[in-house]
Amino acid sequence: MTAPSSSLPDSPAPADLTPERSDVPQVAPVTRLSPRMLTILLVSSCLIPLIGLSVYAAFFGRASDAPLDVEVFVGKEPVEAFGSQGAILTEVVAIKNVTGHELPNLTVDLNGQYFLHRQSPVAADERLVLPQQIFATKSNQRWVPGAYPLKEITVTAKLPSGRRGVKIVTFE
Question: What is residue 136's predicted lDDT score, i.e. its pLDDT?
């Protein structure tokens, strides 16, 4: 006895799956830059901002800080001690505001490494006396007077025009 033939439709032969036209691309086309165009694109993307900034600097000038009119004094003065009735003679940095206006956001740094920032403004003609021991690095290491030579003091503050005023005092 023979097995009955199945009534499944004939499956197409592999040759029948080929496209009708042979010029139809099998993969989507991809846009490509030639090496020359890629070089031109990269060079222009670098040169255009550089030329733009150069033109801006030529017309508007360089950014610079305004001079800050303060007097800076370094020496020994009596400073009121916390919790005591008297003052202690200690190494200080004294700053006198000789401008006709107050100076907010005062920052003082010693040797470009030890800082002190004061939010409250320094009034006109006010003399601010700062003990050198209160200056600290960003990692909170304190300045020790006499341990290092004091070479430079930089005082910055915000001026009424909104610019930053700077006074740099160097010592020999």
Answer: 93
